[in-house]
Design brief:
Number of helices: 5
Strand content: 15-25%
CATH class: Alpha Beta
Number of domains: 1
Distance between the termini: 34 Å
CATH topology: Rossmann fold
Shape: globular
Largest sheet: 7 strands, parallel
Order of helices and strands: EHEEHEHEHEHE
Helix content: 25-40%
Radius of gyration: 16 Å
Structural class: alpha/beta
């Protein structure tokens, strides 16, 4: 059973569809999920209630995918270094991931199996927009810390970092820029990471759409 938070958004819908094609029970969750789980990832009580509802209904939670954050293109570029916007973006993306992961981990570690994947972004690798960079970097670092905490438990935690997401991604990758990717391409990678086949991968941040051209990171 896979809970996809942000499952009614552009990437989330593709993830839900891909997982269902694979035969998984994939449940979308969002603040307005008509056919799934209602959750506000910024509200700790809502997060706890959502995870408890899943466990009561399905008696298990095999995987959690968190895509619940607005596109970087929705951020106010004129306020990119405004502390209030930066803090709000961190709460919406990184802290929402942390709340959800913390709520899901007890059942996963108790079962000795679980997969958690957060969707970050390659803005973490770029300067020029404090909000975009910091919110994604915070998510990646949060996931890595959690992955180390549960190492050896049977639970894996990873992040996926696309550049620009488009239904018709450009093949060309410009110097100093990440490559583009489609929702379906992201969903394919997420589906692999939440599968039993990916048990040896944890604590990783995986770029999709080509990692920033001309830049190395260790």
């Amino acid at each position: 059973m896979v809970l996809v938070v942000g499952g009614t958004g552009l990437i989330g819908r593709a993830v839900v569809a891909r997982l269902r094609e694979e035969g998984a029970t994939a449940i979308p969750a969002s603040r307005n999920a008509a056919d799934g789980i209602v959750v506000d990832a910024r509200d700790p009580e809502s997060v706890t209630a959502a995870i408890n509802a899943v466990l009561q209904r399905y008696a298990r939670l095999d995987a959690l995918v968190v895509t619940a954050a607005p596109s970087a293109r929705t951020l106010d570029a004129t306020r990119h270094a405004d502390p209030e916007q930066v803090l709000d973006a961190i709460d919406t993306k990184a802290m929402s991931f942390l709340r959800l992961a913390n709520a899901a981990l007890p059942s996963m570690t108790g079962a000795g199996y679980g997969r958690i994947v957060g969707v970050s972004g390659q803005n973490a690798l770029l300067t020029g927009n404090v909000t975009g960079s910091v919110r994604n970097a915070a998510l990646i670092l949060t996931a890595k810390n959690l992955a180390d905490t549960v190492a050896g438990s049977g639970v894996t935690i990873n992040t996926v970092s696309p550049g620009i997401v488009s239904h018709t991604p450009e093949a060309e990758v410009e110097p100093g820029r990440p490559g583009e990717s489609s929702p379906d391409q992201i969903a394919d990678l997420v589906a692999f990471l939440v599968s039993p086949r990916a048990g040896g991968i944890s604590g990783e941040s995986i770029a999709i759409g080509h990692r920033v051209r001309g830049v190395t990171s260790m």
